[in-house]
Amino acid sequence: MLNPLTFSLIGDFKIPIKWQNVLKLLPQETVLSESQFNHLLNNYLPKLGAQQLTRIREAAAIAFYHQQTDYPVVQTLCCDDAPQFKLITADRALCWVHKGRHYKKLSPVFACHQVILGNFIEDFWNYYRELLAYKDASIPEAALSLRSKFRRLFETPSSS
Predict the structure, then answer these.
(1) Do 145 and 107 have their domain in common?
(2) Does residue 81 share a domain with residue 23?
(3) Are 41 and 74 within one domain?
(4) Which helix (H) or strand (E) holds 135?
(5) What's the burial of 2, exposed, middle or buried (CB within 10 Å: 0-12/13-18/19+)?
(6) Of 32, 39, 38, which is closest to residue 3 (Cα–Cα)?
(7) Per the confidence metrics, is the pTM higher than 0.85?
C-alpha cells in the first residue's frame, strides 16, 4: 500500500526524490496484492535497482501492516538486530540470545572486570547449549532448573 507512511519510510530508506515522485503517480491508499504491486513497480520503475525495489516493497508492506485491522498491530517486537525489523514497530527488544553477541564487544580495562565478563560469557553460552539440549529432549525437571539458571544469569544483584 502506498500512503503517507510508505513515503515517510521510503524517505528514511533514502530512495531518490525522482523515484518517489513516480511512486506518487501510482494508486494511493489502495491495497494491492504482491503481484499487482510488483507489476506496477516493473512498469513504472523498470530501471530501479534491486535493493531500492526491496526497500520500496518493505515500506509498502509496513504501511499496509499498520493500517490493516484484521490483526492487532504489535507495539514492541522482540527480534534480532536485522535492519529490516527496525521500522515495523516503534519499540524493539533484542531477544537475550541475540543480545549475547554484544557482550563479546565489551573490553573491560581492569583485570577483575575481564574475569567477570569472561565468566559471564562462558555461563551465557553454556546456558544456551543447555537450552538447545532441552529443546531436543524436554523434561519438566530440566525446565525448573533452566528457569533457575536463567534468573541467576540475568538478575542483577543489588545491595541495600
Answers:
(1) yes
(2) yes
(3) yes
(4) helix 111-136
(5) buried
(6) 32
(7) no
